[in-house]
Structure to design on (437 residues):
């Protein structure tokens, strides 16, 4: 089981979740943890179409990020709303993993 | 100190482990820590990395825990470790609770050394406190076992976020507990503490009804978040219905801290109103804390209203009771030794 970041995050990338994650498993690219997004926001650049991702291999399922998200984009894998189910695969595939 | 093998976990697939100590049930991969920072998977086994490592020892009045009906007026050897299994945005101790172990200046001690410290400082009890001792319960249990042998009592100051399986092993060694009941809504627990109300209520009920642990409850009142008198009334009703009218209740003042710097300190008047409400509903021993308020810190006989123990902040000013009975004959639940 893992937590999944779904559509409300796209174009928002608040990164509050990044700060509370105890295992630093929330990333923008595979190597950084939202730093690139933060820099873009600070530089006034567009983050349209960008989102944060949770690495399902690294997530410990602790649930800390979920209440922290200001746009309620984070769900436990089994509780992702029907209309955003594709984000399960999107999160897994972002890290080169095969979705369940 | 060397890391010790943790209690309360199960192996999962691909070298992961499931920590079963608290209801968070972290699934921790090899090399990772759990949410609490101090329970670490190394090679497919879960280790306790805070064992023997304290952020510092202090001698506090027992009233500071707060416990007003347990060994009144005595000093208690108090300490904690780094880490916590909750994520309270208003944490009043966040410099240790949110520290990763290597960020704190730590002191190490064996269980025997801790107990010797209590004896040398004439402390009849040891408090596991500051962060949540649930997460370093392996060390708590070893110290408590040694302390018991020499007649020193053991105190847990906790948020009560623990699984039934773990608490049943830990609390037979514990004599008194102060449990935080941080609010009475699931929204508050979920959004502001990253934990859940029902698990905490279950622990409080279990401690009072199914164990011999002397239990008191603390509610930190935070302006705008849990200070509604309707919510406090619901909490009081639950306490009366579930654990009765003799469990002491402490309403304490919040100071702006951690991620809640923009919230003002709790007005004294709010604490007074909460205390009056709880006493009118029938809780016999209700106190206020983190403010100067002699009336709100005094133990009164619920029958004849005589002042039994008068306190100023954490200091006992005068005492009109020396056993478990008021002069009027009313039995007062106080553990004296």
């Amino acid at each position: 089981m893992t937590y999944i970041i779904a559509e409300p995050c796209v174009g928002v990338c608040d990164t509050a979740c990044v700060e509370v994650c105890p295992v630093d498993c929330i990333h923008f690219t595979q190597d950084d943890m939202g730093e690139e997004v933060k820099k873009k926001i600070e530089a006034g650049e567009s983050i349209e179409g960008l989102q944060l991702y949770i690495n399902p291999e690294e997530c410990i399922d602790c649930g800390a990020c979920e209440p922290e998200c200001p746009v309620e984009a984070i769900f436990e894998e089994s509780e992702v709303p029907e209309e955003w189910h594709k984000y399960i695969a999107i999160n897994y595939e972002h890290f080169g993993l095969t979705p369940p | 100190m060397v890391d010790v093998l943790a209690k309360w976990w199960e192996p999962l697939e691909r070298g992961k482990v499931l920590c079963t100590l608290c209801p968070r049930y972290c699934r921790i991969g090899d090399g990772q820590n759990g949410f609490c920072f101090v329970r670490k998977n190394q090679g497919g086994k879960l280790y306790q990395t805070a064992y023997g490592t304290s952020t510092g020892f202090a001698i506090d009045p027992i009233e500071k825990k707060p416990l007003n009906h347990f060994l009144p007026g005595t000093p208690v050897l108090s300490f904690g470790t780094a880490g916590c299994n909750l994520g309270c945005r208003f944490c009043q101790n966040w410099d240790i609770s949110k520290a990763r172990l290597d960020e704190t200046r730590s002191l190490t001690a064996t269980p025997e050394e801790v107990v010797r410290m209590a004896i040398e400082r004439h402390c009849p009890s040891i408090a596991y406190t500051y962060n949540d001792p649930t997460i370093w319960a392996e060390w708590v249990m070893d110290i408590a076992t040694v302390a018991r042998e020499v007649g020193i009592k053991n105190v847990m100051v906790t948020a009560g976020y623990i699984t039934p399986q773990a608490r049943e092993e830990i609390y037979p060694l514990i004599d008194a507990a102060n449990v935080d009941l941080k609010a009475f809504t699931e929204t508050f627990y979920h959004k502001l503490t990253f934990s859940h109300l029902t698990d905490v209520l279950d622990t409080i009920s279990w401690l009072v009804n199914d164990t011999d642990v002397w239990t008191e409850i603390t509610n930190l009142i935070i302006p705008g978040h849990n200070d509604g008198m309707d919510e406090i009334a619901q909490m009081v009703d639950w306490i009366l219905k579930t654990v009765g009218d003799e469990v002491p209740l402490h309403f304490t003042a919040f100071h702006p801290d951690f991620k809640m710097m923009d919230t003002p300190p709790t007005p004294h008047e709010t604490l007074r109103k909460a205390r009056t409400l709880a006493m009118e509903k029938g809780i016999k021993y209700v106190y206020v804390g983190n403010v100067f308020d002699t009336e709100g810190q005094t133990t009164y006989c619920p029958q004849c209203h005589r002042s039994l123990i008068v306190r100023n902040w954490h200091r006992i000013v005068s005492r009109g009771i020396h056993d478990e009975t008021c002069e009027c004959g009313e039995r007062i639940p106080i553990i004296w030794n």
